[in-house]
Write a structure and sequence with these properties.
Elements (H helix, E strand, L loop, with lengths): L1 H19 L5 H25 L3 H15 L10 H5 L5 E5 L3 E6 L5 E5 L14 H14 L3 H12 L3 H4 L19 H8 L7 H15 L7 H17 L2
Length: about 240
């Protein structure tokens, strides 16, 4: 019965659209029909889901979400993580910190891997806790220090001038030791293994616009991005 009612409603709406949009811009009409199809698909997905047809509900729901353009919405809460899954992120890792850089916005975030704050996000720490983390990195993870400094530069402008005690807050451009692997290079540029030359160059340009010292970035991050480009370009030579 419900499916019959939905069918009648759909026919009525199509009749109304045909009557009112006869002289409308074809693009506007197509958009209206797509929205109508999306709403109808979501409604049908709910109904078949109630009846236990989960497979059909997922199929109809997926089509409805696509038709309504939900992938472009700024969804709240946990759905935001699903939305951001398609975004490109760079990852630079040390023993204690994994830094993430959003290519679209240049936002810098990080996850603490080990130590007193293991499992925490850098954004969840207050200045005092970040100071403790800085001291911990200085003692046990020299490669993590410039990553943390890059984050602090973005979050607290002028923090170096306000730092006190025995901390050496000079930017470290040569803290990284060892040869960068191709896997690391792909992660730093936010690419999948086997990326083309054009993809490598595009990712490098995008990151340098966000991370170059002249753009508010740091010399260390810029150096790492440049190194990643050279490692991957060497694969094509």
């Amino acid at each position: 019965m419900m499916m019959l009612l939905l069918g009648i409603l759909a026919v009525a709406l199509l009749w109304w659209l045909g009557k009112n949009y006869t002289r409308a811009d074809p693009k506007v009409l197509a958009k209206s029909l797509k929205t109508l199809a999306g709403v109808a698909a979501i409604g049908a997905a709910v109904l078949v889901g109630i009846k236990g047809r989960i497979d059909m509900a997922l199929l109809l729901g997926g089509f409805g979400a696509w038709a309504l353009g939900w992938s472009a919405l700024n969804l709240p809460g946990p759905w935001r993580k699903f939305q951001q899954a398609g975004s490109r992120f760079s990852r630079i890792r040390s023993a204690m910190i994994e830094m993430e850089i959003d290519h679209a916005t240049g936002a810098v975030e990080g996850t603490i891997l080990v130590g007193a704050f293991a499992g925490r996000r850098l954004s969840s720490l207050d200045p005092q806790s970040l100071g403790r983390l800085y001291d911990e990195c200085s003692a046990h993870d020299p490669q993590g220090v410039p990553l943390l400094e890059a984050y602090l530069d973005r979050r607290f402008a002028g923090w170096r001038e306000n730092a006190h005690g025995d901390r050496d807050t000079r930017t470290r451009t040569h803290a990284h030791t060892g040869v960068m692997t191709k896997e690391e290079a792909y992660q730093i540029l936010g690419l999948q293994p086997g990326a083309s030359l054009d993809e490598i160059r595009k990712a490098h340009r995008t990151l340098m616009k966000k991370l170059h010292p002249d753009q508010g970035g740091t010399a260390y991050l810029a150096a790492r991005v440049n190194e990643a480009r050279e490692v991957l370009l060497g694969r094509h030579r």
